[in-house]
Amino acid sequence: MASLASEKTASQKNSMKEALKALKEADACLKTSLFGNWKKDWLSAAPLYARASNHYRMGKEPKKAIDCLVKASKCAAECGQEFEVGKHNQQAGMIAKSMKTEEYDRMAAKFFEQAFDAYKDNGDMVTAQTSGKQAADIISKYDIHKSISIYLKVIEALEALEKWAYTYQHFRDVTRLALRA
What we know:
With 181 residues, this protein is mainly α.
């Protein structure tokens, strides 16, 4: 008899079907052929990968959800949509963070750092500082010095835009970490 933990509910099974459908559509957007698409359609593929990720997440398949978000991020980067790149990386980081293992925590920190860079390149420092803080908070469990360097990178970017209230909060966080080190 199979355990109840491995059994999927009807809504989870439906989510998995929807995820596979969206994934198939997204992959079709990126295929080229002599008689069909001549160029890859990155713009259409990105939201389809994001939709597949959401369905995988609802179907309790976080690893597949992360993979789809990485693909969505790549598609958005090909289109030059930096905000979308940041959004997909931030979502992937949140899913990886929820896995609660050291491996996935490190992966989450990497995703949050990528989101920080994407948001910063887009000029959205308020959102970028949130991602940078999330990355630094996760890394502080394993490497305080790297966490401090991420905070300092965030602080530099905020100071350049004269966002003093956010800068003060991060200085306070860096001081706490430095005292712990």
